[in-house]
Structure formats: C-alpha cells, structure tokens
Design brief:
There is one protein chain. This protein is of the alpha/beta class. About 45% of the residues lie in helices and about 15% in strands. Helix 1 packs across helix 2, helix 14 runs antiparallel to helix 20 and helix 21 crosses helix 26. Bound molecules: thiamine diphosphate. Thiamine diphosphate binds next to helix 2, helix 6 and strand 4.
C-alpha cells in the first residue's frame, strides 16, 4: 500500500492538472476530477490491469468514465500513468481544436479511452456490453486469454438517467460479476443538491436488480481498495457508492455546484494550492509524484508479457481465430455464404417478408461468421434475429450467441456499442423501427465512434397493419438517415436483404440499420451473382422498353409497387424504368456523374416510399413527384392502408402521367 502521503500527492496531481487545464481553457468541469481523484488513484495504481505501451491489449481491464464531463480526470491519469501521446502539451491544449483532450472523452481521438462519453447514462450502459463481451469471449477462448474486469466511474446524473436501470437490470440478470461501478456520490448536480430533484435509494435499486452494493468514504484509499477487492470476489456486479466532496480541496467552492462546470478562478486555485500544500506551478508534476505514477503505469507490463505468452501457447487455430476476431476481420467464408443465400432465394422464388429474408440470411451467415452475437428487445419471433443454430445466452452459460435483451431498446443499443468497442464480437439485434427512437442516443454514439453494430429494425411502415399509428413508423427513416455515418439499408427482397447484410458486416467502421418489412414482398431480383448491386446504394432494377419517359424510384416494400406501376405505364406506351435505392448514404457517397447516370434524364420522375418525403429531394430533385406519407398511419389491414394513403401502383402511374402531361 502506498503511504497515505504518497497517495494524497498522487491524487492531488490529478486535482491540479484538472483545475489548471480547465482554467487555461476557460471552460470545463473541475469538480468531478477533484472529488473523484482518490478513486481514480486507487484504481489506476492498485487495481487496474493495463499497459500504457499497449493501449489495445485485448485482455486489459476496461475503465469507463461514464460521467464524461469529468474528462480531465481521465486525461490527467493517462498522462501521469505514461500514455505516450497524452503529453503535458496536450493537457495544456484541453478543449482546443485538434487536441487529444477534447471537452468530453472520445475513444477515436485519444488512445486509452475506451468509449466516448458525455451523454449521461451511456457509459454505464456501454460498460455492460463490454462486460458481456468479456464473458462471451472467455466462454469461447478460455480464461487464460480472456479474464479482465470492467470498471465504471459514474455520477449522480448517470444514475438519474432511465437507461441506467435498463443497464442495471441486464447486468444484474446476467450476473456480470466482473463489472464494478464506482458511483461518485457527491450529492451535487448542476442545479444544486441532488435532493431537490430525486430521492431514490440507489443502493436499494441496484440491489433489487441483482447487484452487490456497498457504501464507502470515497476519499479513503484503503476503503476504496477493500471495496473493489470485495467486488471482484462477488458473484454479482457491484455498485460502490463512494461518498465524495465535489471540488475536494477548494476552500470556498468544495461541496457546491459552483465547482461542477466552471473554472475555479486564479484566486481560488491559489487558495486550493495552499490548502492542499501543493507548491508545483501549473502543469508541473513534482518528480516524486511522477515517479510514483509512472511506476504504476509500468507495473502492468509484466502481466501483459505473461498474457502474450499464454496467447502464444494456445493451439495455433484458436490463436489465429482469436486474433482474427479481435482485429475485426471477417472470415473468408462470408462471400460464399451470401451467394448461396441469393442463389437459393432465386431458385425458391415466392413472396417473403424481408424480416423473414433476414432470418434466412442469418441462418447461413451466422455459421460463417461465428462472432456474430444476435439478440432482440423481446421481439425475437417478430424480428427474426434468432438464427437456426443460435443458442440463448443465460446467466450461467455464455457459450450461446443470442441475447434476450428484454424490453430495453436503449440499454440494448448501448450494450451493443460496448460489445463492439470491446472487440471480438459483432453485435446485432432486433427491434421495431418505430422504437428506434428509444435507441437513438446510442445509435448516434455508435455512428460518432464508427462502431460496427447492426440494428435489425422490422415492421417498417404502415405495412405492419392493424397495430396502428403508434407502431407505424413515418418519420423514422428520415430521422435515421439524418445521423451522419449511419448506414440505413432498406432492401426490397431476399436477394437485396442478403446484399444488405453483407454490406453491414463489411462496414467495419460504421453502424447499420437494416429496415425490414413485416409483410410479404415478391422476389424482384431474378438472378444471383457475386456482384453486390445494393453496395452502390441505388441501381436500375427494371429497364425501360425504350428511352425512358418515366423513372420510378423506391426503397424496400415500395419497390414492388413501383415495378407494378412501371408495367401499367409501359402498357400505356410510356417506357418506364425502376430504380431500387437500398441505401441513400451509399448512393450519395458516389461521384456525381455516376449518380446522374442512375437517376437518368426521364422527363417524369416519381419517388415512392411509405414514409415522409424528407431527404428524398437530395436523391431525385425537388421537381420529382413523391408518393408517400404526410401524416401518421391508422389501424387497418396493410392492403387497405396502402390504398387509403394512396401508395399504390395506380397512383404512382397517375403521378408519372401527370408530370408527362405538364411537360
Ligand atoms: C443526457 C445528458 N443530459 C444532460 C447533460 C448535461 N449535464 C452534464 S453534467 C450534468 C449533471 C451533473 O451532475 P452529476 O452527474 O452529479 O455530476 P457532478 O456535478 O457530480 O460532476 C448534466 C445535467 C448530459 N451531459 N447528458
């Protein structure tokens, strides 16, 4: 054990780096780093298994700062422990453009940061996914190479957010005993005392969700260490309520919301230096303190080297498989698996709902890509995300590949992010498209971080029928397409569904949403080849009989309506082509000349999608007609709804004829 004096000085180094960096930036949050410095010091010097020279060592312990506003805590620790890139110059550039020290921690900016945090509640829920991935990989590869813990530091705000309950429930149920959450229980948030807005007994809440819980003095290093050791021995996840003082050390501001999110000011910083006996100038670390921290950082090298040896001792095939999965490389077998599904679909023909098409694809590709971990938010039979061979994961058996997430869309989406960030698994899950709203903050973070997670979103329009407008997405396609980086894939038949799955898996650095129908759709693609036509985002699926007078554009379930409309138009002597657009994003990423060719120059252009028009003008231009939705849906059989809202082949053909008449 460090002497108390050494501990205090090491913790104070975090406090002063944070105070001084916030002061230099003239913005930021000093209160949490000052209050939680003792917790971080014990964690990083006594507990955490890490090696700053190998930030991506697969068997490192994960540390998630769920309260991302306290980013200076993390930057201070990374610098002190010896993460090479987090230099003192970077600390001085806190919150500056292009620095490695942005306002909130970004995993894609700074090595050593496990996940982007900032939206409260996301970190703790993401950490649940990391802990799940650890157990899944340990079940496959053994604890010789997969045996680490996930630690979270969260704040009051993290626990106020509803997602924290979804996460707690899931972790407690799954008995994620290697998940340890340290709650910075300082009783202060932005508006003042937390008692002005809440009175939940958090320990009772977590206990009720199956967690071990304990309460300690968050400034007592021995108590912190003892609580963590007890947590590691528990058979359940643990919540440690660490009573701390926000802004610890500041004579005038400690314990008050004033220190949460603004610089202390030169005078108060000087007073804090005097109070804590800190003589070093801003950004200077006394040599005894730096030596102590660097020794803590170097201590993990031995464990890491021992792990390297254990990995080397694995049977060659296991080792290669482990390394492949951790690198996120797909198995060779995927291409042949996709082609086999396409060939079978063409042979079988017939009408199939794309949610069912997706199941047919999953039956084959989950065999080829065994790191795929499926799931559903209690809609397994509707989302069709449980492949034929998939076994459910249970609290006592993680050898399966399917997660019953329960009715917890938000917690599910965040856990998927954590699984993807952990590496070694590819998470996909199921939900209704209309409830993607419930996942949206986590999907947004997946896109920001560039993580490969695949959301299967079924029941994608009024085509779901009788459940009515609460369940019928109208604005959701536009809302998802608005998220930068997210691939929104809406296939029209089984062949396109296979291609969209291939795209989603091959997109290693972005999330995908697969938008699938409840209702049956005819097979439109008559031939199966190796070529992935959907990968271009849009392509001509039906050619015109002569130079096209009308071009019809559609996605998903409306492509077959456009194809019927084209037949009507052709019968009236209007040469008509149909363009299927499985992905706006992939199409818009292509060069303008290629796009112009796909869009064509027919005088009449009509777009069809059972959703709002928003977003379509960028594809077809504002001069095109649009057949879709302008209101919420209604409760009735799907066919009647399509007729009621005018999304029919007749209407599409009529709009094209109108345009030609005006021409
Ligand atoms: C989802 C979300 N809502 C609001 C915020 C803005 N915000 C940042 S910190 C905070 C609350 C601060 O209280 P607490 O979590 O106790 O942190 P502490 O004051 O102890 O640092 C809020 C509302 C946020 N980051 N995320």
């Amino acid at each position: 054990m460090l002497s108390r004096t050494s501990h205090d000085r090491m913790a104070n180094a975090i406090r002063f780096l944070s105070m001084d960096a916030v002061e230099a930036a003239n913005s930021g949050h000093p209160g949490l780093p000052m209050g939680a410095a003792d917790i971080a010091t014990v964690l990083f010097t006594k507990v955490l298994k890490f090696d700053p020279t190998r930030p991506f060592w697969p068997d490192r312990d994960r540390f998630v700062l769920s309260a991302g506003h306290g980013s200076m805590l993390l930057y201070s620790v990374l610098h002190l422990a010896g993460y090479e890139k987090v230099t003192i110059e970077e600390i001085k550039r806190f919150r500056k453009l292009g620095s490695l020290t942005p306002g909130h921690p970004e995993n894609f900016v700074t090595e050593g940061i496990e996940t982007t945090t900032g939206p409260l509640g996301q970190g703790i829920a993401t950490a649940v996914g990391m802990a799940m991935a650890e157990r899944l990989l340990a079940a496959r590869f053994g604890t010789d190479v997969v045996d680490h813990h996930t630690y979270v530091l969260c704040s009051d705000g993290d626990l106020m957010e509803g997602i924290s309950q979804e996460a707690a429930d899931l972790a407690g149920h799954l008995k994620l005993s290697k998940l340890v959450v340290m709650w910075d229980d300082n009783k202060i948030s932005i508006d003042g005392a937390t008692s002005i807005s809440g009175s939940t007994d958090q320990l009772a809440r977590f206990a009720a969700s199956g967690w071990a819980t304990t309460r300690i003095d968050g400034h007592d290093p021995e108590a912190i260490l003892a609580a963590i050791e007890a947590a590691k021995a528990s058979d359940r996840p643990t919540l440690i309520a660490c009573r701390t003082t926000i802004g610890f050390g500041s004579p005038k501001k400690a314990g008050s919301e004033k220190v949460h999110g603004s610089p202390l000011g030169a005078e108060e910083i000087a007073a804090t230096r005097a109070a804590l006996g800190w003589e070093a100038a801003p950004f200077e670390i006394p040599s005894d303190v730096l030596t102590g921290w660097r020794a803590a950082g170097a201590a993990g090298a031995e464990a890491r080297a021992a792990w390297d040896a254990r990995l080397a001792a694995l049977p060659a095939a296991d080792r290669a498989e482990f390394e492949r999965r951790m690198a996120g490389a797909l198995p060779q077998a995927l291409g042949a698996a996709i082609l086999a599904v396409k060939e079978k679909a063409v042979k079988d023909g017939g009408a199939v709902a794309t949610r069912k098409s997706s199941e047919l694809v999953l039956d084959v590709i989950t065999e080829a890509v065994p790191e795929m971990i499926g799931g559903s938010a209690d809609l397994t039979g509707s989302n069709n995300t449980k492949a034929k061979g998939a076994k459910s994961i249970t609290p006592d058996d993680f050898s399966g590949t399917f997660v019953h997430y329960g009715v917890r869309e938000h917690g599910m989406a965040a856990a998927m992010n954590g699984m993807a960030l952990h590496r070694g698994v590819i998470p996909f899950s199921g939900g209704f498209l209309v409830f993607s709203d419930y996942c949206r903050p986590s999907i947004r973070l997946a896109a920001l971080m560039g993580e490969r997670v695949v959301h299967v979103l079924t029941h994608d329009s009024i085509g779901l029928g009788e459940d009515g407008p609460t369940h019928q997405p109208v604005e959701h396609l536009a809302a998802l397409r608005a998220i930068p980086g997210l691939l929104v894939l809406r296939p029209c038949d089984t062949v396109e569904t296979a291609e969209c799955w291939q795209i989603a898996l091959q997109s290693a650095d972005r999330p995908s949403a697969l938008i699938l129908s409840r209702q049956n759709l005819p097979l439109l693609r008559g031939a199966a080849t190796d070529e992935n036509l959907a990968a271009g985002g849009a392509y001509e699926i039906v050619a015109a009989s002569a130079k096209a007078q009308a071009s019809l554009f559609a996605t998903g379930s409306e492509v077959s309506i456009a194809v019927e409309a084209a037949k009507l138009l052709e019968a009236q002597g209007v040469p008509t082509r149909v363009v299927s657009i499985p992905s706006f994003e992939l199409f818009l990423e292509r060069p303008a000349a290629e796009r112009a060719k796909v869009i064509g120059d027919a005088p009449a252009k009509v777009a069809v999608e059972a959703a709002i028009r928003m977003g379509w003008d960028a594809i077809v231009g504002s001069d095109a007609a649009f057949v879709g939705m302008t209101s919420f849906g209604a409760s009735a059989p799907a066919k009647e709804l399509y007729a009621h809202f005018g999304i029919t082949a007749d209407k599409v053909a009529a709009r094209a004829l109108d345009l030609l008449r005006q021409d």
